[in-house]
Design goal:
The protein is an all-alpha fold. Among the domains are: 2-264, Helix Hairpins; 408-496; 499-588, no CATH class. The protein has helices at 2-50, 57-163, 165-264, 270-334, 345-397, 406-496, 502-531, 536-546, 549-554, 560-571, 575-578, 606-621, 625-628, 630-636, 653-666. The chain starts with a helix and ends with a helix.
Length: 667
């Protein structure tokens, strides 16, 4: 059976492949038909062009020649297509014959399988009959044994049974052995019969499934055969149409040959040409009419086939709509859930599965709990039995005590001690509760201290970070100051070249020292004022200290900026007023934001005079860079040479003497 089934599978696989190839060929034929239709459209267009009377005779002749050449090519191609179609029809007939032969083989195999199934059924019935006979014979033997034993016991009596006990025992054992063999044989036959019955059921199921599969395959093969027949009919019609077209092309070829023979003549009249064209047009009109009739027949056949297909499609659509409506009715009959959504079969399957799983888990938990409770109950019952026995033994063997006996006195003393100790325990518990409250308060206080410690640690880390940043800032400021000092030293060296007299150089240095001292004093006063800005008493004390004569004595009289700043600190204690910058008119040095790009200070005209002096000095020294480097140097340097008086003007005699004495005292 398995071999036959494998052979049938192979045959069906071959049939599928052949059907696939047939479908592909049909697709190719459809494509060829589309090409032919396009060709017909082109020919119609050419016919309209040939019938156009607006063209000359020469153009028409050329068009006719082109059409004849195309028809010749088309005729050769049609011959090839005709041969191919004949070959395809022959192959299709051969395949149809093979399919019919395979159908016969399938029917024969089906009949053989039915015969095998009937034989198996008869064998099964025979086995069942033999099994039933063996069961009846076994029952008869058992019944005979029982009746024989009863008769022997009744006839011989108890005494004879005692005398012949050995023989009876031997016979009984022998009969038991025989009965056991029969029982084993019967069991073996029953098992064999059950196995055969199972095999028969399995074979019957397999045969039913194979029969259904064969029937479906047979139906598929029949459908394929019917489709092949239809394709053969279509190919025959195509072949006939091709034959008609071939005959028409032959007519065209004959006409073309006659036309060519007529063209060989060198002399012809216009009337003969007109007659030839009329004859050609009539023949072409006859051909067009034949083509139109043929296409009308094909169109009617295609319309009929389309109507059949539409009917089948409508039937299938009705069937699909019926199934959809049945499904919708079934789903609507299920109802809706709590959220208002439509229920489905899948929803109920999932719900029932979840409920079963939940009930199963709940049942397992209840079973385990019941087993545990049963063990606890059995243990309590055993304990109660032991306690009851002890109590009964105690009540049976003990007498009531005397009220004035030592035991009662001792019991009263113990009761009094118990109450005293209980009071003491309550006092201790109260103390413990109080201590626990204190411990809780201490824990809360410890928590707050820990939080404060964390905050202080965070502040310390922030302060350390700020300190590091301030140190870095101070280092940068020191570097900047060092750079400024280097620039000043360089400027001093360059300025020293400008002065020929030592006294003028000393005056210049004194003015620089005076300027640095004024700036430092101003910065120190600003720092002290900012330090005392938050405390009113400190601001007042600072104002009192600055009012002293020693402070005024140590300040240079010409430094109006510093004097004005001291006056503002003394006059007002407001931090906002103290923080305002001084006016430009009162400042000795110009601010960096009021400095122009020319290097000239906007505060006074002394730097202008210095610039004029440098320009006059440059041609004497022979260095033009002294006069040209002033603007660039003023932009790069943080401390420019913005000095009030560099000794450029001619001082009075008394003032020069005082300055000289001061410079000597300074040095």
């Amino acid at each position: 059976m398995q071999r036959e089934l494998s052979n049938m599978r192979n045959f069906l696989e071959k049939l599928r492949l052949e059907n696939k190839s047939i479908f592909e060929e049909q697709h190719q034929k459809d494509v060829a038909l589309k090409n032919i239709i396009e060709k017909i459209k082109e020919l119609k267009e050419k016919l309209l062009e040939s019938t156009d009377k607006s063209k000359s005779s020469e153009k028409r002749a050329k068009q006719l020649e082109e059409m004849l050449n195309e028809e010749e090519r088309y005729a050769s191609q049609m011959n090839l297509n005709q041969q191919r179609a004949m070959h395809c029809s022959f192959m299709e007939n051969q395949k149809l014959l093979e399919l019919k032969n395979e159908e016969k083989l399938f029917s024969m195999q089906l009949k053989a399988s039915k015969a095998v199934m009937s034989k198996l059924d008869t064998k099964q019935r025979n086995i069942e009959r033999t099994l039933q006979g063996l069961k009846e014979s076994l029952y008869a033997i058992c019944y005979q044994l029982e009746t024989t034993g009863a008769r022997v016991a009744h006839m011989e009596g108890a005494q004879a049974e005692r005398e012949c006990s050995a023989e009876l025992a031997e016979q009984e054992n022998r009969l038991k052995e025989v009965c056991g063999r029969h029982a084993a044989r019967v069991a073996l036959l029953e098992r064999h019969g059950a196995r055969l019955h199972d095999d028969m059921r399995r074979l019957a199921r397999d045969l039913e499934t194979k029969n259904a599969e064969f029937q479906s395959r047979l139906k598929t093969s029949m459908l394929n055969v019917s489709g092949g027949e239809k394709e053969v009919c279509a190919s025959r019609e195509e072949w006939r149409r091709l034959r008609v077209e071939e005959a028409l092309t032959r007519l065209r070829v004959a006409h073309a040959t006659r036309a060519l023979a007529g063209l060989d003549r060198t002399h012809y009249t216009l009337d003969e040409r007109r007659l030839q064209l009329d004859a050609a047009m009539k023949e072409r009109l006859v051909e067009i009419g034949a083509r139109r009739d043929m296409f009308g027949v094909q169109k009617r056949a295609l319309v009929e086939e389309c109507g059949k297909l539409r009917g089948e499609i409508r039937e299938r659509e009705q069937r699909v709509h019926q199934l959809i409506k049945r499904h919708d009715i079934f789903i609507a009959s299920l109802g809706k859930d709590e959220s208002g959504q439509q229920l489905s079969v899948t929803f109920f399957k999932i719900k029932f599965a979840a409920e079963r799983a939940e009930l199963r888990e709940r049942g397992a938990q209840l079973d385990a709990e019941i087993v545990k409770r049963e063990r606890d109950v059995s243990a309590l019952e055993a304990t109660m039995r032991v306690v009851h026995a002890a109590h009964a033994h105690f009540m049976a063997h003990s007498a009531p005590l005397d009220q004035d006996g030592p035991e009662i006195t001792e019991l009263n003393d113990l009761t009094k001690q118990y109450y005293e100790r209980r009071d003491t325990l309550k006092q201790v518990q109260t103390q413990v509760a109080r201590l626990e409250e204190q411990v809780a308060d201490a824990g809360a206080h410890l928590t707050t201290l820990a939080d404060k410690y964390k905050q202080l640690t965070a502040r310390q880390s922030e302060a350390e970070n700020q300190l590091e940043s301030l140190k870095e800032h101070a280092q940068r400021q020191e570097n900047r100051l060092q750079n400024a000092h280097d620039v000043i030293t360089l400027n001093l060296k360059r300025a020293k070249k400008l002065f020929d007299d030592v006294d003028e150089w000393r005056i210049f240095k004194l003015s620089m020292y005076n300027r640095n001292y004024s700036e430092a004093a101003h910065t120190a006063l600003q720092g002290v004022q900012e330090t005392c800005a938050g405390v009113r008493e400190a601001r007042a004390h600072l104002a009192v200290l600055l009012c002293g004569e020693e402070v005024r004595r140590n300040l240079p009289p010409h430094n109006t900026r510093l004097h004005s700043y001291l006056d503002r600190i003394i006059a007002s204690e407001s931090a906002a007023t103290l923080g305002t910058p001084p006016a430009v008119e009162e400042s000795v040095f110009s601010e960096s934001m009021t400095s122009s790009r020319s290097g000239v200070s906007m505060a006074s005209g002394y730097t202008k005079r210095l610039s004029v002096f440098r320009r006059t000095l440059a041609p004497k020294v022979g260095e033009q860079s002294i006069a040209d480097d002033i603007p660039d140097q003023a932009r790069r340097s943080t401390v420019s040479l913005r000095v009030i008086n560099l000794g450029i003007r001619e001082p009075q005699l008394t003032e020069s003497a005082d300055i000289c004495t001061r410079s000597r005292a300074f040095h």
